[in-house]
Amino acid sequence: MTNLIHLIWNEQIKLYARKSTWVMFFALAILVLASGIISRLWDSEFQTTEYGTNWQVELQEENIRLTSEMDNDELSKLSNPFQLEKNMYHIENEIKPLPYDGWQFLYDNSFFTTLISLFTIIIAAGIVSNEFKWGTIKLLLIRPISRSKILLSKYLTVLLFAFTLIFFLIAISLLTGALFFGLNNPTQTVVLEHGMGYAHGSLLNVILKDYGLSLVTLLMMASFAFMISTIFRSSSMAIGLAVTLMLAGNSIVLFASHYSWAKYILFTNTNLGQYFNGAEPMMEGMSLSFSVTILCIYLALFLMASWVAFTKRDIAGH
Amino acid sequence: MDKPAVTLQLINLKKKIGNKEIIKGLDFEIHSGEVFGFLGPNGAGKTTTIRMMVGLIDITEGDVLIEGKSIKTDFNNAIQHVGAIVENPEMYPFLSGWKNLKQYARMVPGITDHRIHEIISLVGLEKAIHEKAGRYSLGMRQRLGIAQALLHKPSILILDEPTNGLDPSGIREIRKYIRALAEQENVSVIVSSHLLSEMELLCDRIGVIKNGQLVALEEVKTTENSTALQDVFIEAEPLAQAKEYLEMQLSTGIRLKGKELILSLQKEEIPSILKKMIGQGFDVYGVNVLQSTLEDKFFNLIGENSID
Ligand SMILES: Nc1ncnc2c1ncn2[C@@H]1O[C@H](COP(=O)(O)OP(=O)(O)O)[C@@H](O)[C@H]1O
Ligand SMILES: [Mg+2]
Predict the structure, then answer these.
(1) Which Gene3D superfamilies does the entry mention (chain B) (predicted)?
(2) Which of A171, A205, B2, B130 has the fewest C-beta atoms lying within 10 Å of its C-beta?
(3) Chain-chain contact of B87 with A9 (C-beta, under 8 angstroms)
């Protein structure tokens, strides 16, 4: 056990000694900051409006104004219906609109988890193959430590890296959000865009669910890249394949969707959000437990293949 | 005198890759405190054998026992006695020498910072230890490689072509550590090379490998043995009179080859003969002593004293 911790510690040192790792954190920070600045400058009108005790009346007045705007202005015809609908939702469900704040900014930033998936894929793709590239694999594997343990330490390092990035995203988003928009109580009920319409719930719950669900794709694609890099000992191949698949995932599902076996495709199951948004699942016969089972099978396959390739094969050549 | 303990044993070791048998059944033992030279031309199978010894590649047939433990079935207990460099000493280029060593220190329990400092001063890397290893010269990387191999006080040190790419002073220095380790710390050292000249000065015993087979296994005799006869080549003028004079002085025969006289002498006879010749007014242009007989012996076996 101390062994494993030392190995993970070693991996952390190797990871953070390289500039490319810091570039990822830096890029994320810049993007979050930029999105904060843009939100602050351009969306200020609706987001910073404070509503009083007569908020229902205020909303109705706002809707009348929005509707009249649409009669005169072409641009408003496109943008105003969304705000109209949202205001209606507030009135119908008796939820007082809260001003935009750091927590909502955090919620809006959840799409950056796609970028985190990409970064994690890059790390997963290099963590084994780089040792081959550097030639250091020969020094790593002649210690009194089993190859399985070394592989495990590398896999855990990839997961640790993903979590570190996510915590970093959350921290930097809250910080930027607090600075630009202030912070309210995150357990208040909010109305948020949800699929095609709107839904409401405790903001904190919504945030946790959103970030949590994004971990699924991240975990699966990072494990896939880890496998490819361990089998083929090439990081560029692993990055290429994993990113292509991640981007093409939805198209693959769409393309195969009229076959019944499509429900066994990895990408049909990575979006667990389909079981929480009230709509029908993507295909007949699918349920949350079905998808979780399929995901576990894929994960086990990826990890088994990595393990076999790493522990059984000769370390020859360069 | 008792033979020192066997530390490493190859038993009918074979390696097949595809249909090609690369190592065809090696059988030999290495004792503690011994420097064993593993000599053979490029492509003979030295690196492949070493990779099997340290468990980097599978053994097709046979076994390697390290301190009696099989590298195949008892890897952790076998490998803990081994320090090695396989082919080039490759390090993490973005970490300092110190941080590279710390990586390996963390992988074995009980290696203190004090021990790391001790090894660094042994290999003479104190000045550069906090520089990035990527900026090291080949010689410095070789030293760092040796440091890495010695951290955990192994009883067997395996070095694959450690003198590759080093200048003569670097080679001399490595020879110094290796002899010291064997003589003072009783470490068994296995050194591979394709250069006989280097191995002779360094090793106690040399095994010659060719096409995956051991073709010779020889003790290296120390030339300190002063009663042994050595061939001495003397270039002197006038040649005919010199030959005549020496024939009067010595009982043994004297051969003439080109401009040189070849004498069989004991080491301690050489200075007095030379003094006499000079005293007689002969002009001596050169004296060569053929140091070794190993060269002749191995030359035919290896084919050449090859340089790639
Ligand atoms: N992975 C491999 N696949 C096929 N042949 C190999 C492989 N590794 C080494 N060889 C062959 O095995 C022979 C021995 O190589 P090697 O052990 O590197 O020799 P040395 O270290 O003595 O120069 C060479 O002929 C080489 O071509
Ligand atoms: Mg070699």
Answers:
(1) P-loop containing nucleotide triphosphate hydrolases
(2) B2
(3) no
